[in-house]
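Late entry, zinc ion complex.
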Amino acid sequence: MPLLAIETSCDDTCAAVLDGSRILSNVISSQADHERYGGVVPEVASRHHLELAVPVVEAALADAGVGFDDLDSVAVTAGPGLIGALLVGLSTAKAIAAPRRLPLVPTDHLHGHVAANFLDPDPLEPPFLCLIASGGHTMLAGVRDHHGFEVLGETLDDAAGEAIDKAARLLGLGFPGGPELERLAADGDPQAFTFPVAMSRDPGLDFSFSGLKTALVYISRELGEEETARRAADLAAGYQAAVVDQLVTKLRRALEAGEWPAVALGGGVAANGPLRRAVAGLCEQKGIPFKEVNRELCTDNAAMIGSAARFSQPLAYPDYLSFDAFSTGPRGNR
Ligand code: KG4
Ligand code: ZN
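Prediction complete; structure with ligand written out below:
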């Protein structure tokens, strides 16, 4: 029986229909409006979700060839994320589930990024080590079963995607910056400028990206506006390499500290080509299989939420009517 999943934790309005680990449909509507602000404006995001939630759900059902009355349960991201944005998704899910007395499955967004790896084809079985790097989070997750994960290390300040988006903005690129920075960096020399690879001497598994951003601000100030624009590709390449370096250094350290039979990725930054190649190289060196989840399943989507929901606690009608979203996750393990 099909499950409908809804994800609205940030600026993408997403709905998907799943049959077990099989994706029947996966619709993502990205909000272009944030580009002119250079970042996501929470209130603007909520308003767009309000307009898009119903058409996106209808499109997901139509793509799957499924009607509302065929649904078995409704899953929704409960947090962490932007509270107003989350509430639109949660209210939509309740409004679909309650009249049909369907169970509702509140789902953790980060569990979703991990659970993208449980989807067809080739679902990955735990245990495995998962590097999650997105616009809001950067962490190493030790995944021992389908139901949750242990946080082995996380960022102490900015997330990797946030650092990338800020650099992209400084270099005059659009939002979100990741894909554009990657394109620009492809024409640059990563060695042309020296960027600090933070935390590389720190023995733990935590990350830090705020110093990198500051380094770029100083370099570009020294170069001046014209020269920064002329050397943008080299700057992008060096900056991206420093982000990838830190992520891979910590991943290597986590692999050396534990017995992990496989490696997986999650989050928007995991769509990055140089990161994927570096992780693939590391895994090859260590003789560990690397699960390369599709790029569309790395960035925010509802299929990953449906996947996590299969291993989360459903709430029966009417218990979920008073259930609330949460903006910041309980720090630590899920
Ligand atoms: O997982 P996601 O879609 O949303 C959050 O949960 O934050 O991640 C979005 C982040 C943005 O910062 C975006 O710039 C970054 O992922 N991103 C990338 C790439 N595609 C998206 N970063 C680097 N390279 C990419 N190709
Ligand atoms: Zn995300």
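The pocket of zinc ion (ligand 2) is lined by residues 109, 113, 134, 267, 300 (CB under 6 Å). Will revisit in the morning.
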